[in-house]
Amino acid sequence: VVDARTSTIRDQSAYSNKIDTLAKLEAAMKKGAVTATAYVDDGEVLLIAVTSMPDARSTDTTVASATAVKGAGASAGLNVTATAVVDNSGHTIKVTVAGSPAEGDTIVVTATPTHSAASASGSVTLTYSSGAWNNQTITITAENASTQAYTVSVQ
């Protein structure tokens, strides 16, 4: 048995050990589909070359929750609801505010990815200027490096 996968591909597979024995091939098959080529001569298997297995890394780019807090120096008249509203199908995070924001007030929003191996691009700051709040973007990166941008705004 020969494992033709590169070490990088192996690390991303459901079975990340090098498959170089029948026992390891059987163990890998218990974790997922194994693609292999069998070289046969007169009905006798000469070689089994493992070529791929499914990528076992998570593709989850959803947001479990998001929090919002008043930025440093924000006016006393601004009230921010601590829990932002997340819409994973619409890819939005909306913050609820009350009171009277003042020019230059800020809100800091932080998203928490659903999957523990995913990451968020960081917190964003929404700023009140000329009578309106600006929008920002938080990007969630899944374990397999796929990404999803979420528009962060005040509702």
Number of helices: 2
According to DSSP, the number of beta strands is: 14
Largest sheet: 5 strands, mixed
The class by helix and strand makeup works out as: mainly beta
Query: Spans of 5+ residues with little confidence (pLDDT < 50)?
Result: none
* Secondary-structure element string: EHHEEEEEEEEEEEEE
Spatial strand arrangement across the major sheet: 6-7-14-13-10
- Give the termini distance in whole angstroms: 59 Å
Average pLDDT taken over every residue:
96
Topology:
Layout: E1 2-3, H1 7-12, H2 22-31, E2 35-41, E3 44-52, E4 63-70, E5 78-80, E6 85-87, E7 92-95, E8 97-99, E9 106-113, E10 119-120, E11 124-129, E12 132-133, E13 136-141, E14 147-154
Parallel strand pairs: 1-3, 7-14
Antiparallel strand pairs: 2-3, 4-9, 5-8, 6-7, 9-11, 10-13, 11-12, 13-14
Written account of the structure:
The protein is mainly beta and 155 residues long. The protein contains two helices and 14 strands. Strand 13 and strand 14 (147-154) form a beta hairpin. The longest helix is centred in the first third of the chain and has 10 residues, at 22-31. It is rod-shaped and about 85 Å long. It starts with a strand and ends with a strand. The mean pLDDT is 96.
